[in-house]
Hints:
Layout: H1 4-14, H2 29-45, E1 63-74, E2 92-101, E3 115-122, E4 128-134, H3 144-154, H4 160-175, H5 177-191, E5 203-204, E6 209-210, E7 216-223, H6 240-251, E8 254-262, E9 286-293, H7 301-311, H8 329-342, E10 349-351, E11 354-356, E12 370-371, H9 381-391, H10 401-408, H11 424-430
Antiparallel strand pairs: 1-2, 1-9, 2-3, 3-4, 5-7, 6-7, 7-8, 8-9, 10-11, 11-12
Amino acid sequence: MVDTAQHERSTLRHAPSFLRYERYEGGSLETERRVLDKLVDVQGAYRPGGSPAHLLRTFQARPALGVDNARLRFHDDLPEVLRVGYAQPGAEYSAAVRLSDASRAERPHAAPGLRRMAVRVRAGAEGTHDLLATGFPVSHAADAREYVAFAKAMAGAGSAVEQAFGLLVKLPLAVGWSTAARMRRNVHTAARHAVGSLARETFWSCGAILWGDAGPVRYQLRPAPGGTPAPPPDRGDPDYLHRELTQRLFTGDISFELCVQRYLDERRTPVEDGSVEWGESDAPVIPVALLTVPRQDLDAAAARSAARRVERLAFDPWHTTEEFRPLGNLNRARKAAYEASGAHRPALRLTPAGLLAPAGLLAPAGPPTPVTPRPVAVLQAPVRAAFGLVGRYVPWHRLPLPAGLRGLVAPGPSLPRAGDLLKPPLGALSQVLGRGPFSAPAASAPTASAPSASASSAYRRSG
Length: 463
């Protein structure tokens, strides 16, 4: 009889490498998925009314920079253990970079709070890879349950009294006093951060990603040595951060170091808990590459056109290869939200072949590339037939949320029209677990009339 422990070790060696590090609620990915589906339903129930048409980039309302001519170059002395996939010594790739406010609310650039960096690396045969990072090293929520509990506690909190009641009463009752205190502390610290220049900010991934056989890492993008210090922010200029970057790039390049911290163990460098910082004393920061935004005139017509192209991109931490897949409960929960919110982007349309992205976005013009949504149900023929029959009589958006979403991936009469993508059920999903643990709870359109700058709308991270 084969020894059980020996059999388990052998199975683990032959399993996908990410299974060595992830821990699933309920003991399996399938069980956890059912739990996350329920959390989707709960979060959708707490979404106030509003115009889903404003969800084009729900949690990145204030772009300060969008360029598609950046370069990412890996260091010649890249440690051998980190030479994985496109990460090779001396390898250089073009990249698109977006710097933005992490709040969906329209507010002055110089207002305190979190900022966000999104990078799309075009690595040729190695595919494209999105890196998303936010200006705070940890999430306010350890996992999806805490995130949804926070969103429920803050839902509809427009006034200071309502916000205080949500943070001090509703949140502790949902998650416990010590957890609520930690969440409030992270929220307040992040929301008070003043930014003088996005070129001098550090951005953290917060969650872990796989780095091939090297195991999990967290990455950060920090200002490269040298460069002009950040000036005091001009609170009177609503577009201050954009203007400051424009002045910098008119006279020289802007550079960030891409660095990683390697996994040690679940206590010091947890994969499943996004609220714990990986201490640099335990997991030293290792510079691996240099990201350079070249000198340019952001007011020129070509630069403005590039910024519009970048604005139409759907950045997603899951837009990568299996060697660099995101890890952890929050990343797994966020996967569906990214896919759903991506469907709200301009010029996307749904056809029987799937979601089609417009051609020419940082790629040569040509036929649009099909982007197949992730299946949320087993797509056997009987299921497709059932949705086809139901779709003849009941529009998908009038079905219960889980059934409606499953109808989206069942081809035939149940497919929605392009305009139906903006109806409330899918809009609700796009806000579930949002664009990062520092996302605001679901709210109406990102305009000045939206709920005031609560703690939950002043901060966010990725992903």
